[in-house]
Design a protein that fits this description.
CATH topology of the largest domain: Endonuclease, Chain A
Helix content: 40-55%
Order of helices and strands: HHHHHHEHHEHHEEEEHH
Structural class: alpha/beta
Shape: elongated
Strand content: 5-15%
Number of helices: 12
Number of strands: 6
CATH class of the largest domain: Alpha Beta
């Protein structure tokens, strides 16, 4: 029966699948080859090649190697990155993660699933403390203040899910987090003075972890490249290796998956960290605001 098929649910487009498929498509077109050539190399159908390039199906390591050989890709570093991405995509597709317990996550499910297998995150936030660094009371105050929940009973499970995400910052393979936060996010009294005081104290504690780097973009920085939008760069190998960029707005969740977009945001984040306060000075600023409260 179809319901018992182990492949059920795998024919679906994923962020990682599209990122990998897009790279393979770019390589094929650079060699002026057709999908039929790729199909012959894989002993597969043209339809399967089309699904691979659209990110609809997982791809095995031997197939990645065969396509790279066909396309003349001799760079071992690039091959390693593609294999790592293929593995991450396969793990993502078969995962039945903890996040499935929380239907209130809605559009964040794909992001949380990728966060769970990522090696690093670089995030720039204009108005709020990054989710991985929020306290329960701060997250709850944000949810209440948002005012868009159809069912208020969903708020508490949402807060619980946000706290569960923070387990990625500890354990055997902790996520490398580099958070860049606008000073205004630290001064906005989300939930009131006591909630913000606890939140700022939590930031100071988290920044002492070896896998967490925290910088503040101060008001005195003036105009800077990140003033128009917040974003998060998700890495699955070393930073810059086939990254994807996540942007969350009031109406939609946007994934930027091309090399061009990833490289642009890599450069943008790098420029912004050089404009922002160094971590030591950032923590001094946070401590100063903490004491003001």
């Amino acid at each position: 029966m179809a319901g018992n098929s182990p492949d059920r649910g795998r024919t679906v487009s994923t962020v990682l699948g599209r990122r990998l498929g897009g790279e393979l498509l770019r390589m094929r077109e650079a060699r002026s080859l057709r999908q039929s050539h790729a199909a012959e190399a894989l002993t597969a159908s043209v339809a399967k090649v089309a699904k691979i390039e659209r990110g609809l199906v997982p791809i095995r390591d031997p197939d990645v190697r065969a396509l790279c050989h066909l396309y003349g890709e001799a760079d071992e570093a690039m091959l390693g990155r593609l294999l790592a991405l293929a593995k991450a995509d396969r793990e993502r597709r078969k995962a039945s993660g903890w996040w499935n317990q929380y239907p209130g996550l809605h559009a964040m499910v794909e992001y949380v699933a990728l966060e769970d297998i990522a090696t690093g995150l670089r995030t720039w936030q204009l108005a709020i403390v990054p989710g991985l660094l929020q306290t329960p009371d701060y997250a709850r105050a944000l949810a209440v203040g948002n005012g868009s929940w159809e069912d208020p009973d969903e708020i508490e499970p949402f807060v619980e899910a946000r706290m569960a995400r923070q387990a990625r910052l500890t354990g055997d393979r902790p996520l490398e987090l580099w958070a860049l936060v606008q000073e205004s996010a630290l001064r906005q009294l989300v939930g009131g003075r006591q909630v913000m005081r606890e939140q700022l104290g939590h930031l100071l504690d988290m920044a002492r972890r070896p896998n967490v780097k925290l910088q503040v973009m101060p008001y005195l920085a003036g105009a800077h490249p990140g003033m128009t939008s917040a974003f998060t760069i998700v890495s699955f190998a070393e930073p810059g290796a086939l990254d994807v960029v996540h942007m969350d707005t009031t109406s939609t969740t946007l994934w930027l998956e091309s090399d061009t977009d990833a490289e642009r945001h890599d450069r943008l984040f790098d420029r912004m960290t050089r404009v922002a306060l160094a971590q030591r000075n950032s923590l001094a600023l946070i401590d100063g605001i903490f004491k003001e409260l």
